[in-house]
Amino acid sequence: MKIIGIIGGCGSGKSEVSNLLKNKFNAYIINADKVAHEILEKDSEAYKKIIKCFGKNILDNNGNINRKRLGAVVFSDKEKLKLLTNITHPYINDNIIQIINDLKKDNKYKYIVLEITALGKGEIYSLIDEYWYIYCNMNVRLDRLLKYRNISAESAKDIIGKQPTDSEFRKYADVVIDNSNTLKYTFEQIKAYLIN
Hints:
Layout: E1 2-7, H1 14-25, E2 27-31, H2 32-39, H3 45-54, H4 67-74, H5 78-106, E3 111-115, H6 123-126, E4 130-135, H7 138-148, H8 153-161, H9 166-172, E5 175-178, H10 183-195
Parallel strand pairs: 1-3, 1-4, 2-3, 4-5
């Protein structure tokens, strides 16, 4: 069982690649962003710490964390983003490690695909056998963000500008998949790598 870390910026198509691995190569997908959603659920430990740090203005009418409001607070301030990361990452890491350990016991999947948004060091990263960097042309990324996230071009550029650069991602990458073209072209690259 191989653990593949899928990395790449917003709009690069990490989920598309993950789905190809799931549907064509018997991979189990762990999306770190989805795990992050789960740990933010109302009245969880992470939820309480976040409210204590960022106040109740980030809550919706039902008392749940409104991710857009929280994002507006932290993405405009590096220190606040770091604070949020320090709160959430231990919970995210623990959940992911538990999922991986359970999957290893089952031994049902050929690959575990961990779709992550951050690059870093620590226990979770030491579990990854190889990193796949999903590269995508900047114009394609911007088009995707505008189309699927319903945000302005300025917001899209701001999000991308706060993420690691192409050269930073490539430093981590064991494999580079170009997802700027058709899904068929992306699939052919994956197939050539995994089958050879």
